[in-house]
Amino acid sequence: MEQELDKDVVWLEVLFSALPGEQKNIDTKLPNGKNHSFQISSMHIVTNKKFADANPAAAKLFELMKFDINDVSAENVIMAKGTNKPKDIEVHADGGIKADQKQFYASIETTKKAAM
Q1: Which H, E and C letters describe the chain, residue by residue?
Q2: Which CA distances in Å does 75 have to 6, 12, 83, 86, 95?
Q3: Where are the domains of the chain?
Q4: What region, left, alpha or beta, does residue 9 occupy, with left being phi > 0 and alpha being psi -120 to 50 degrees?
Q5: What digits encode the pLDDT tens for the residues 64-110?
Q6: Rounded to whole angstroms, what are the CA distances from 79 to 15, 42, 48, 73, 85?
Q7: How far is residue 101 from each of residues 26, 95, 112, 114, measured CA to CA in Å?
Q8: Is the distance from CB of 114 to CB of 56 less than 8 angstroms?
Q9: Which CA distances in Å does 44 have to 18, 56, 58, 66, 116?
Q10: Per the CB 3.0–4.6 Å rule, which of 23, 35, 51, 52 could disulfide with 29?
């Protein structure tokens, strides 16, 4: 699966941080050495039309998914500290699902309907 992600997902990078004004001295370089030149405040899942048309349930799930940026940051810290194997990430995801089961299962039901 990781190879698929490497193939299908592209993170645009820059050589250095370049925030404006009062933020000009903030270094946006991530612990893994990559630099996207911005402080992350939101994330969105995007896909191409061909994939979305062939996978309506996935497209609907992508539309519904919302992540608190603080949760994303916390996950990145945990992974940077070494808990980053596929099995570890699965445990983290299960914890997130358990923390908000009602919303998770409502999203799954909605995506199942989109698949029909």
Answers
A1: CHHHHHHHCCCCCCCCCCCCHHHCCCCCECCCCCECCCCCCCCCCCCCHHHHHHCHHHHHHHHHCCCCHHHHHHHHHHHHCCCCCHHHHHHHHHHHHHHCHHHHHHHHHHHHHHHC
A2: 19, 21, 9, 13, 11
A3: 1-39, 47-116
A4: beta
A5: 888 777 788 788 888 888 999 999 999 999 998 999 899 889 988 98
A6: 23, 19, 28, 10, 8
A7: 37, 10, 16, 20
A8: yes
A9: 22, 17, 14, 8, 25
A10: 35
Q: Which of 8, 7, 114 is nearest to 64 (CA)?
A: 114
Amino acid at 52: A
And the tokens for 44? 């969105």
* Amino acid letter for position 73: S
| Tokens 């990145």, located at residue | 76
pTM value is 0.54
Task: Name the token pair of 98.
Answer: 């358990």
